[in-house]
Structures are given as structure tokens and as C-alpha cells.
Amino acid sequence: MLNYAQFYQNQGYKHNENQNKMAFLHNIYYRYISESYKNAQNLLNNAKIDINLVKNDARCFIKSTNTKYNFIFLDAFTPSKCPALWSVQFFKELFAKLEDEGMVLTYSNSAAVRNALLQNGFYVGKTYDPNSKKYVGTIAVKNKNLIEHELDERDMDLINSKAGICFKDDFLESDNAAIIARREAEVKNSELISSSQVLKGYKHEHAEIL
Fold this sequence. Notes:
By secondary structure, the protein is an alpha+beta fold. 47% of the residues lie in helices and 15% in strands. Helix 5 (88-96) links the parallel strand 1 and strand 2.
């Protein structure tokens, strides 16, 4: 399933109708014929995997649960549209509910997100995709030894710029519009350097090296 999702994420936009049909046939093969699917199905039938689906506001759930987690996959909608799940206060709850050897993983590279994680005591690094040879997300942990790719100077400069100003949701109950308006006001009144100035400096530095 992960490979199939990755196929659509990385290659889906390149495929025409005939190629989509081939992918569909491949999926049929995987589901009804392949040994890997049969093994996965047997695993589920034997109840070796327990899935507990909760339909709720994640903020309400994380405050109410006493469970400690090994992995938290944060796949919320983009911070600029759904900041409620990227705030300093929400990450404080994630820190409290994460095992000492656990990880928070997300696709986001946002300086505001990384700063919010750092402010809550997380060690923060980057996730690397060997296929695209790019850094594709963020990892936050309590044990620094779990980080393979640390944030570099450019990442830290962005965190310390206006781009790194965090979303705030004091009681984990504000709506997205209010959280966005609060951050926009803070950015407007901030004397921090802008992210464009930070990036311009690195472009200039790179040109000097060349």
C-alpha cells in the first residue's frame, strides 16, 4: 500500500489513461493474486494488528488520552490553512504523549513548525528521501541520537526569521482564522529579518562560491 501511494505521489501526474489502466491492473494483481497481499490479509485476520479509529478534533483527543505513543505521523493540512494542528500548544501535548524513544514525523518543512517543536523541547531534524535525493520533511524526537539529518545553518536562520514565528492557540480551541490573524499581526510587528532576506543572503553566498 505504501509503494502504491508513493507511485501516485511521485509518478501519478506523468501517466496517461493507458498507464493508469496498467496501474489499476497491477493493483488487482496485488490484491487478489500476490503473496504479499495474502500475507498481509492473514496478519489482519489473525488480529496481530489492532487499528483503533478515532473521529474527533485532534486537539480534544490529544488532551484527553493517557496513551503514550512510539510514532506520531502528523499529516494535517498545510499550516497556512489549518494552523490549529501546528501550534506551539498542540506540540506541547504531543511532547507529553510521546515515548522517550518515540518520533513525531511530518512532511512539513515549515520554519514556524520546526520552531514550535524546538520551543517544546524536541530535538528537530530533517527526513531524507533517497529516491528524490531531497529533504522531504521533519522529524522531532526526545532522544537526539535518533536524528540522522540535523538542521543546517540555513534552516536555523529561517527559524530565527519572521518565517519562524509560530502559530499560537493558548487553550487549543481557537478557530483557524483567529490563529492565522494572530500570527499575521505578530509577523507584521516583528523586527526579525524576513525569510526572503535570509534566502537572498544564501543565494549571494552561493554565487560568491561559484
